[in-house]
Specification:
Largest sheet of chain B: 5 strands, mixed
Distance between the termini of chain A: 54 Å
Strand order of the largest sheet of chain B: 2-1-5-3-4
Strand order of the largest sheet of chain A: 2-1-3-4
CATH architecture of the largest domain in chain B: 2-Layer Sandwich
Chains: A alpha+beta, B alpha+beta, C alpha/beta
Helix content of chain A: 40-55%
Radius of gyration of chain A: 19 Å
Number of helices of chain A: 8
Helix content of chain B: 25-40%
Order of helices and strands of chain A: HHHHHEHHEEEH
Structural class of chain A: alpha+beta
Distance between the termini of chain B: 25 Å
Number of strands of chain B: 10
Oligomer: heterotrimer
CATH class of the largest domain in chain B: Alpha Beta
CATH superfamily of the largest domain in chain A: Glutaredoxin
Number of domains of chain A: 2
Order of helices and strands of chain B: EEHEEEHHEEHEEHEH
Number of strands of chain A: 4
Largest sheet of chain A: 4 strands, mixed
Shape of chain B: globular
Shape of chain A: elongated
Strand content of chain A: 5-15%
Strand content of chain B: 15-25%
Radius of gyration of chain B: 19 Å
Number of helices of chain B: 6
């Protein structure tokens, strides 16, 4: 059995408050390797994605093989290894939204901003992504702009709001 | 372990309870096709070649992971199973870019042998032609993703036998790939011990030593089984 | 807290509730749907309004869980009259308070469904939307504040737990559940009592109880609404289940997409612990049980039991072949009971009212009620709960108010990517496990999407195949390669480039993937394709006709 890493192992990362958050979670989980996903959630929330140095830090702190960490990260939709942009546009493509025209919204976004789901604009201002269902089917189609849910979204309205959102 | 009676392909057999259907079949010279199975490492039931029919169960079960039970009636060679073995083999070939004639493993490849076994003369499904990389960064070995069938024998051997866990699987669905460390080039891995066990575990020409030319590859997966046996005996 | 203290607390809360019956209780729906429509701002505005009018003493404002008709939100319900107002916002809340609280006279043109019914109902219970429903799992959703344990206690909360701990042995509990004939609401419909009994019979010092809240079907939000609207009910179900099978540690695996559900469930755990209903020596007995929340990270396949277990262990959510079943070897290799959220929400009422009562609801083979998430081309989209065996026609045309613009019904999709499409000629099918299977669909978790003629069934099949392809874990060959092959073939047919041979290959692959896949995801992935091939074959034929 490996000895649990001490606070000293966490020392070098003290500078970034977000890494502190992760360190605290790892400590709370008692450095258990099976807490990997819980810890990754904290990191993903703090950064919006999982930077490589953060992954390396988590791997070391939890005594996990790097390949296992990377395989877990790449398996789940929630975790992303790339930054998603300063502003985000998430289009729900659940069945109800699909029936009510989510694809038309995505098409319009692609036409206007030349961005397809999963892509980020070159200036990193806007990231477009899709969700499989955010569970607001009664309000379909649904788009989430910077954490704000847009109910019964109309194509033109969404494009307008995105323009406003990314405007300097 | 207590002995129990099972019926495999209409043969009445006596076998030790606790054994898998695959083990009992191999002990009794009943052929079961396998790909992800490697004697000694954990079975995962992923290739679905060893599927068998069990009376009273409407699901097909993998022989490598299913334990025998008293009076179990097992069928290993029904028309349905043969048909599915053929489709599985076809899908293996269609999934990536297998060109036997230029492969180091030509003539020594388990996938090629499987193709002969199920009587594959052509593949009825469209080839997917995915873009695959060839990792030549390791000093001695090459990993060619074009020839990988995702049996994950390398992953399990590395983690369970060598204890290095250099390999794992990234992504999901048809995007899965074998990775070393953080999807880093094999040659830059911090965990690989260059022991070469993955090379012997690999059933195809996906992992091979650099000093080998086409058709000259000799793999010895039995060596891994031997090693595990010896360790168990404390030799 | 011990048993007597719990009893006293429950009595006190009930008395309080009785006193309030004479007063006004204003329930503001804070389900996910209504929150997106702005009910949180409305709640604040309402509180201000009541304060300015100096009505604090006569009016109690309660943020509640989902009330059902989500596309009419934000919804506000006045108790005890049970009058529901729809599309209430910060601008029109004033007259509503004036009319309802001060003048005691409802505003008719703002009542629920007032824009589509010639005579809306003052008591919402009389509206056909609610009249045909029977709420068991959703019983108190929309009436209680999900963030207050005392609200739950005042609605018979934790009385089932009390009964179980002091009056019943684990065998008694399992017997009662078996007697109720309740089946797993996650989709497969395995008898819950049998599942509990199996786990109970395995002897092990460690056993686990997992609540499966990884509701991943697109178009389904039943579990979400239960977790958000009445988390304590699910928690109580978990504790009872753990007591019955002998588990001391539990995990609630909740989808990461549901932050509110996670927040409320975590709060419920905290509150229950504080009151001694959870943790060590529950209500002073020898029974101890602790629950932790695990947040799903976005993988549909994690709804599959063995994949969920791998995920709780912090690994890739790849399924394992069964047997061995989790009941024998589950989390950390120990006997593990996994129940769906909706199943667990049904446990407390069964204990309180008896298995006999539950078994008499529904059909002979499918007892009880089922929650459906009604969506698509339907007038009243939202969350409903009906007795098993209610027909599709009743659900669509009586509860759901029919199709918008009087369009003709074409098909209903049940069970999401694992289910199938039911065509118009089967509108009178009874919604129960066996009837749906006989039509090539499944009950699934309860997503119910209504489609009219604008939906192209080949495209629908393609849509679900793409979903399954993307969500395949990639472990076994049939699902990993088969779903991709089927998707490619469907795309080809959709583009009018398919041939007869392609169609034959598609059918062959569908049956192969269904039978040869390792887990439930692969085994059910071909269902949308197979069911549309069965009921809408002509649409496929039309696409390939042009070729040879």
């Amino acid at each position: 059995m490996n000895a649990a890493p001490t606070v000293k192992d966490i020392e070098p990362v003290k500078a970034d408050p977000r890494l502190k958050l992760i360190a605290a979670k790892i400590k709370k989980e008692n450095f258990k390797p099976d807490s990997l996903i819980e810890v990754l959630h904290i990191a993903q929330n703090a950064y919006g994605y999982l930077p490589m140095n953060v992954l390396k830090y988590i791997t070391k702190a939890l005594h996990l093989p790097p390949a296992r960490v990377y395989s877990t990260v790449s398996f789940y939709h929630f975790f992303s290894l790339k930054s998603k942009g300063d502003h985000t546009c998430l289009v729900c493509t659940g069945t109800a939204c699909y029936v009510k025209g989510a694809q038309a919204i995505l098409n319009e976004i692609e036409k206007t901003f030349s961005l397809r789901p999963g892509q980020v604009s070159t200036d990193n201002k806007l990231g477009v992504s899709v969700a499989r269902c955010i569970g607001a089917c009664g309000l379909a189609p649904v788009v989430v702009l910077d954490e704000e849910v847009q109910a019964r979204a109309s194509t033109t309205e969404i494009v307008e709001k995105i323009n406003k959102m990314v405007a300097p | 372990m207590a002995k129990i009676i099972v019926y495999i392909d209409d043969k009445k057999l006596e076998a030790e309870s606790g054994k898998t259907i695959l083990e009992v079949c191999r002990e009794n010279d009943i052929e079961i096709l396998t790909m992800c199975h490697l004697e000694g490492i954990t079975d995962i039931g992923a290739c679905r070649l060893c599927l068998v029919e069990i009376e009273g169960n409407n699901k097909l079960l993998s022989a490598c992971t299913t334990k025998i039970a008293a009076n179990m009636v097992i069928k290993t060679k029904t028309e349905r199973i043969k048909k599915y073995q053929r489709i599985t083999t076809e899908l293996f070939f269609a999934e990536r870019n297998h060109v036997c004639s230029v492969c180091v493993a030509n003539g020594k490849c388990e996938l090629q042998k499987l193709g002969y076994k199920v009587g594959l003369d052509h593949i009825r499904y469209p080839f997917l032609f995915p873009q695959c990389e060839v990792d030549t960064s390791h000093e001695w070995y090459v990993l060619d993703h074009n020839r990988c069938i995702m049996c994950t024998r390398c992953v399990r051997v590395c983690a369970e036998v060598e204890g290095a866990h250099n390999w794992d699987v990234m992504n999901r669905g048809n995007q899965v790939r074998i990775i070393s460390d953080f999807n880093t080039p094999w040659g830059e891995s911090t965990t690989c011990t260059s022991c070469g066990k993955c090379l012997h575990a690999c059933p195809t020409g996906a992992i091979w030593p650099k000093d080998i030319v086409q058709g000259q590859l000799n793999k010895n997966p039995g060596m891994i089984t031997e090693l595990i046996e010896k360790r168990k005996l404390g030799l | 807290m011990n048993r007597q203290e719990l009893k006293t607390t429950i009595e006190a809360e009930k008395n309080k509730l009785d006193l309030q019956k004479t007063k006004h209780r204003i329930c503001v729906c804070c389900g996910a749907g209504c929150i997106s429509s702005g009910s949180e701002a409305l709640l604040k505005k309402l509180q201000e309004e009541v304060e300015t009018r100096g009505l604090e003493k006569d009016v109690e404002i309660i943020p509640t869980g989902c009330m059902g008709p989500c596309n009419q939100g934000p919804l506000v319900k006045f108790q005890p009259e049970n009058t529901i107002y729809q599309k209430v916002d910060c601008n029109n809340i004033q007259p509503v308070v004036q009319a309802q609280v001060v003048e005691n006279k409802p505003i008719e043109n703002m009542l629920l469904f007032s824009d589509s019914r010639s005579k809306p109902f003052v008591n919402a219970k009389d509206d056909p939307f609610y009249k045909k429903q029977l709420k068991i799992a959703l019983q108190d959703c929309g009436d209680i504040n999900p963030e207050k344990i005392k609200d739950y206690l005042s609605h018979d909360g934790y009385q089932a737990l009390d009964k179980v701990l002091f009056e019943m042995s684990p065998e008694d509990v399992i017997g009662e559940i078996k007697h109720s004939r309740i089946r797993g609401r996650g989709g497969a419909g395995y008898p819950t009592g049998l599942k509990w009994e199996t786990v109970y019979k395995y002897v092990s010092p460690e056993k686990y109880m997992i609540c499966n809240g990884d509701e991943g079907d697109p178009g389904a939000f039943m579990d979400r609404s239960v977790l958000e609207g009445n988390p304590h009910r699910v928690l109580e179900g978990m504790i009872i289940a753990a007591y019955a099978v002998g588990a001391n540690k539990g995990y609630a695996y909740i989808r990461g997409e549901y932050p509110l559900a996670i927040k409320r469930f975590e709060l419920a755990i905290k509150q229950a612990k504080k009151m001694g209903l959870l943790g060590s020596h529950i209500l002073g007995t020898e029974f101890s049980f602790d629950v932790e929340v695990r947040i799903g990270a976005g993988a549909f396949v994690c709804g599959e039991e063995t994949a969920l277990i791998a995920s709780v262990e912090g690994k890739r959510g790849t399924p394992k072949p069964r047997p061995p079943f989790p009941a024998e070897s589950g989390l950390w290799g120990k006997p593990t009971l996994i129940n769906n959220v909706e199943t667990l929400a049904g446990i407390a009422p069964i204990i309180n009212k008896g298995g006999e009562w539950y078994s008499e609801i529904g059909t002979p083979k499918s007892a009880g009620t089922k929650v459906f998430a009604l969506a698509g081309k339907i007038n009243y989209a939202g969350l409903i709960e009906v007795p098993m065996g209610t027909t599709l026609r009743e659900i669509i045309f009586e509860i759901g108010g029919g199709m918008p613009g009087g369009e003709d019904f074409k098909a209903a999709q049940t069970g999401g990517p694992s289910g199938g499409c039911i065509p118009a000629e089967y509108l009178d099918v009874k919604m129960d496990y066996e009837s749906l299977i006989s039509l090539g669909s499944i009950m699934g978790s309860g997503g119910l999407i209504i489609m009219d003629k604008s939906s192209d069934m080949v495209d629908v099949a393609k849509y679900f195949m793409e979903f399954s392809m993307d969500e395949s874990c990639g472990k076994c060959v049939p699902c990993r390669v088969g779903t991709k092959m089927m998707f490619d073939l469907l795309q080809k047919i959709c583009n009018n480039k398919g041939t007869r041979i392609d169609l034959n290959r598609l059918e062959e692959l569908a049956v192969y993937v269904k039978e040869a896949s390792l887990c439930g995801l692969g085994a059910s992935a071909p269902n949308p394709l197979l069911s549309t091939l069965r009921h809408f074959k002509q649409e496929y034929e039309n696409r390939i006709e042009k070729e040879i």
